[in-house]
Structure formats: C-alpha cells, structure tokens
Input
Amino acid sequence: MPRPVRDVPSTTVVLPREEINRSPTLTQDSLVRTLPSVATFRRTPSLVADPTAQGLNVRGLAPSGVARTLVLLDGVPVNDPLGGWVFWRSLPRLGLERIEVVPGGGSALYGSSALGGVVQLISRPITGPALDADVTYGNRGTGLLAARGAQRWGPIAAALETELLTSNGYPIVTPTQRGAIDSDTPSNHVVLNGRVDAQPSDALSLSARANLFRENQNGGTRFTTARVELAQLSANARLQTDTLGTFSLDLFGRTLRFEQDRARVAQDRAAESLAASQAVPANDQGASLVWTAPGWTAGGVHHLSAGIDTRRLAGTSRERLFPPTQSPDTVVSREAGGTQWASGLFLQDLYAITPALELSAALRLDVWRNTQGLQRVDRVSGASDSTTFDDRTENQLSPRLGLRWRPWEALTLRASGYRAFRAPTLNELYRPFQVGTVLTAANADLRAERLWGAEAGVEVEPLRTLTARVTGFWNVLEDPITNVTLPGGTGRQRQNLGQARVRGVEASLDWRLSRRWTTLLAYTFVDPTVTAAPGQPELVGRQLAQDPRHRGTASLTFEDPSLLTATVQLRATGPQFEDDLNERRMGGALVVDAALSRRLFWKVDLFAAVENLFDREYLAGRAGVDTLGPPLLARVGLRLRDAL
Output
C-alpha cells in the first residue's frame, strides 16, 4: 500500500532515483549490495559471476546461490523459476524510479520466496514525453549503451528501454594458482523492455509489459561458460471504487533457457577439457488478485487487504558428461527435472488505533506440490536408469504481527514477529552443479526451510535533515538447505542441515549536512551460527558459509547543479568462510568507489565512475580454486536526462 516510509510498521529502506543515478556501481546487484544488510552469494558481481551464483540474501540468512529473498519488478516475481536466483543484468537502471527493501520474513504476504524479505524494483511512471540515455566506456573493455524513451497520448502511454553492455572482465583466479588456461572473463548482454499503460476511465487502469534478455558469460577458461535467453510477458489491471475498495489483478508468464559448460582442469591449471555441457529450459506462469478495502472505523481506522495467487514452475536439466576414462557403467548423460505448483491466500489488517499507534497483522496459507519429478541416467553401455520421484504436497501457515508507535513526532518505535518458509526449488531437488573442482549433488528428499523471527527498532528524526535508525533482529532457521561436505571431502550435497540461529543489529544514519552535502552511514552485524546438525555434530557452533559478521557502508555526496555532483563511497566486509566446516577462510575487504558528474550543456552531463578506486585485491571464493573480487573498474561517459 502506498504510504510514507516512516509510517510503515516494518523496517523499510528505499533507494530513490536520485541515489540510483549517482551511484558509482555498474550493475544492479552491486547497487543493492551498497546496503550492508543485503548481499549476493559471493563477493563477485554479476559482471563476471555465473547467473546461478546471483542469489540474494538479506541479514545473513544462510546465503547460497539460491535467493532466500523475493525480488519483484512492479509486483511480478523475477526470481528464476528453476533455481530462484536473479538475473540482475536483465533489470535496466534507466527505467527504475526506486528500489524498496523490506528485510525479515515476508511469507505472511508473499509466500515461499520471501523467507528472508522482499526487494521490489518500481518502474518510473510515464507522465509525458521523456528521453534518457547513457553512453559509457571504461577499462577492461567495458562499454555500456542504454536508452529509454516514453510518450503519452491522452489516456495511452508507452515506454521503450534498452541496455547493451560488454566487458572483457578480469582474471578471477589468484596469481599464485593461475595457470596457462586462465584468462579474462568476458561477458555481454542485451535487454529490450516495452511497456504500455492505458486508463480507460478514472477508476480503471491497465498495463502490459514485454521483456527480452540475452546474456553470455565466460568464467575465465575456454570450457567455463554460461548463456541465458529469457522472454517474459506480464499484464496488470487495477480497479478503484469508492465503496468496494481497490482490486488489482496481475498475470505473467516467462520462458527461458540456461546453458552452461564446465571444465575439467589439470592440477597445475596448464590444460583443461570439457567435463560437462548442460542445457536447462524452464518456464513459469502466475496470477494474483489483491483486494484493498476502503478504510473503515472500529475503535480506530482499519485498512484491510486480502489476496490470492498461484504460480506454476517447470524446468529440466539436460546434461552431457565427458568423462576422461570410460567403462560400460560410466555415466555419459543425465536428465532431471519436474514441476512445482504453488498457491497462497493471505489476509492483512493495518489497524491505526490512533495516528501515533498502529498494529499490523497478516496471515497466509500456502500449499505447494512437486510433480513429475524424474531423473534419468544414460551409460556408455547404452543402459538407462530412470528414477521417478513421488509427488509431494506440503502446506505452511505464515503469521506476522507488527507494531509502530510514535510517542513523539521525532521518535518512531517498531517491533514485529513472524514465521516464514521457503520450499526447495526444482534446482535444489534435481539439478547437480559444479564450482571449480567441487561437485554438489541434488537431493529430491529436501524439505522446506522454516524461519521464526522477531525484530525491534527505533527511528529518530531530531531534525528534518537527520534520520537515525537502529534495529535488532533474531531469527531461527529450521532445516536450512545448505551444501554439506560429504565424508572424505569428495564432494557436497544439498541437505537440510538442522538449525541455525541468525541474530544481529543494523544501524544507519542519513544526514543532510547542508543544502549541498549529504552523508549516509550504515552498518550490519550478523551472528550466523549452526545450532543443530543431526549426524554432523562437528558443524554445531560453526559460522554459516559465505556469511561475514560485519558489513558497513559510508558515503559522502556533494551536489550543486550549477557546479557538479560527486559521491565517494566506502564498502567494508568482514572475514567469512567458503565452506560449512569453516576451514576455507577469506579475509575482509575495504573498497572505495567514487562518481563525478557535471553538466556540459542543455541536459547532457559528463559522468565518470570508478569501483575499487585503490585496486584492493581480495578473495571472492575458495571453491576448489581461489578467485578474486573485482579490481579497479573505471568508466567515463555522457548522460542525457529528461530531454523531452
């Protein structure tokens, strides 16, 4: 529901269009990671990361390649139907009005994918003729061309946006382990999005959108590649009435194909050969209907909403294997996949007892069913083994209670408690994968993860130019799906680990020092600890993999339209571990980014940005081979804003 951020009972962080425009970051995942509570699986950006490693987690909830946070674009899920990861490069920046982040269990409204929270990208409204464009070029062969045009003809409006990016990447293997096969990590992508809005009457508004996306990536060797092709259609109808409230209907459908090659690498990395080639076609379809009642009075003001949604997800992993030696029993191909149906029904009441005190309550029932699960293995001898997995149906009831109290105009207190869940994805159930030399097997017997959590926070606004927030949170994650090292260290398998406790504190300060100067400070402390691991007692007390305890961001911005706009940003990440046994440690990292823009003439700006200004070298992963985070990445270009 549209309302001021300070009135929302849940902790909510908003990145407005102004901050998005002046950010030094190049890709959207790097942009959202400037919020310390938000992280992707590894420290590698989508500029060079395999798409399957671009899962999002918030507040350190057991990060993995699969996202434990729901990502929406104007209310439509963008998480991959097979694996839940996010194709960040398919979301052009020019078309965004703002990004909203709501950490904490969100299943009471959004179901399975929102176990760790919700990130919503809101498109810019089409208010009239507009033309925007970016042209930039930088080191390591990184070039970007982006454009957005919009026009309105009475009740009809349309927008078209495109983005093309190409980059040579950088060598990601550490110099001490780098071999003859290792080179740069080139990538490219192209996005084309179209949207049409119509308002036949004051009460009814309609919208339709089409998205096309293609991405090619090389992981640094000849046989380490990934490709994605995606097409999506969505439509929305919104009806506002005076007596019955507002009805909003969303429909969407998507089809995509993900392809990946994996390499077999010699120990000295002097030679490689093709180990496996995988093709993963997937699709999903969904619909949701949400009703928001007019405000009504009963001991205060109630804002009631209810909704129902359903989604079908289907995908198949087809893999060809090229083993170095063969016998009649050697596996040469695998095929695995299935279909998942998920539906939910929710009810929410926002109850303002007084303007200063508001209670919120939400309850949702979800039912999901895994069907048509199949795995087939073909051997050199010509024999085939097929395994049909039983259909499984599960359900979950997700409540959430919240409170917002403003005893004084400058002070806001918030508290909430919730239960959330995440059903295993088709990827976790059926698709094996390999990173470096480590093979991780699927597990068709996985159960849903469940989360109990609570948070409490205070927001102080002593001045109109100063806002400070502190929020403490405590989460207990039951049966988290993690990649567990198998006995002997020969590989890993996805398993329900047992239980993990994730507690911490996040704090932020937003201070407009003067008309020209603004500073933002944010810090998140997370204590992610395994508290139960049946059958693997050595994991108890260990820190969750890929989960640093400390993350912080500081930025300082100078803005004078007649002179220039400049931003300096510092990002700090504490030490973390690659593996569940906490044996592969990665040190912390301190990175400085900067951006500068100045008006040249008319509405054209000269823009320059650099990420990792001091070329700090730090580890991003240790999965069989040590890999590096991004080095210094600089670019310069021209920007055209609001030309029409």
